[in-house]
Write a structure and sequence with these properties.
Number of domains: 2
Shape: elongated
CATH architecture of the largest domain: 3-Layer(aba) Sandwich
Structural class: alpha/beta
Order of helices and strands: EEHEHEHEHEHEHEHEHEHEHEHEEEH
Strand order of the largest sheet: 4-3-5-6-7-14-13
Largest sheet: 7 strands, mixed
Oligomer: single chain
Bound molecules: beta-D-glucopyranose
CATH topology of the largest domain: Rossmann fold
Length: 383
Amino acid sequence: MRKRVIQIGKKTGYVHGKVQMMRIKVNKSGRPARMRRVAAVPAAVLAAAVFVSGCGGTSPQRGDGSVRIGVSLYDQYDTFISELMASFNGYVDNRKSEGVDIATIVQDASKSQPAQNEDVAEMIENGCNVLCVNLVDRTAPTEIIDTARKNDIPVIFFNRELVEEDLMQWDKLYYVGADAFQSGTLQGEMATEYFKEHPEEDRNGDGSIQYVVLEGEAGHQDAIIRTEYSVDTMISNGILLDKVGYAIANWNRAQARSKMEQLIDGNGSGIELVLANNDDMALGAIDAYQGRGIPTEEWPAIFGIDGTDTGLEAVIAGTMTGTIYNDKDGQARAMEALAYALASGSSLDNLQLPDGVAMQDNKYIRLPYEKVDMEKAKDYLSK
Ligand code: BGC
């Protein structure tokens, strides 16, 4: 039985800059269904009923030239993802201002794979003609792939990379992201350069660098690979390393802060390097040193990855030693261009991708990473 739709008189979100009245789907008992998961990021957001009004109708095969993009996020509160989405919305708005009939729906899965599976089915049912999916569990895309395939709706997975065999299940599946190996290698190179330029930062003069790793979510391709390649790159460049601690902090600043406080308490001033899998966790480490009242001259070198706005500011301020830019804007641009081409039936040969970027194997678009020191951080922030 189809869900009824009711409208409540409250401004809740935006579709292409226009404030929408929120409508909530209700289930048979008349209770609002899954309101919690409608993404609430300004300009990225929509309520369930916008599917009905915004996506217009229930047929997935629109055939009227309109582009309706359904986006499902693993967690709308992830800093990197929300910055990527802000860029994505900007590209959609640009296209709209060129007269294209294009609209976006964004759903937040709140870290639940079953919820994401349901959202995807609903977005298709409500007329989206292309999907962008930031998988909750990158090892569990099958239900989404089956639903999309049954309805002939192409899917662009992004940021959380599914295994190749899954991506090969159907020719209308794509991946937009970056090369995790490169991010780890560049972080390792940057840390190597730092210690070669600053031998005095081996504070206890024992010839090796005492380090800790703050790792992202267990099982995420970027977490596993970044840690391994960062450390291996330093070692193969002649830096002797001595691991004194390790913690999983799930990409999260607050978790990283509390884990780092424990590491500081356990090691005193003995930590000379913090390798964080992302900027939010590097910022958590900075919070911990600040919170413990340790003077900045006694802090270790702290490296992040992402180049989020706050991360770049910390590099400029000198509290974060360096970061590796994870090109959120390039990924957003590539994803929007691909989504538009797929939904409008245009050729994929003429995609407007950032300079030097090309689709590989008709499946993958990967944006390169870049090392960001204080000078570069200023350039990025002023872009
Ligand atoms: C980013 C992290 C982010 C994660 C989410 C990674 O590529 O570096 O900051 O939390 O993706 O999937």
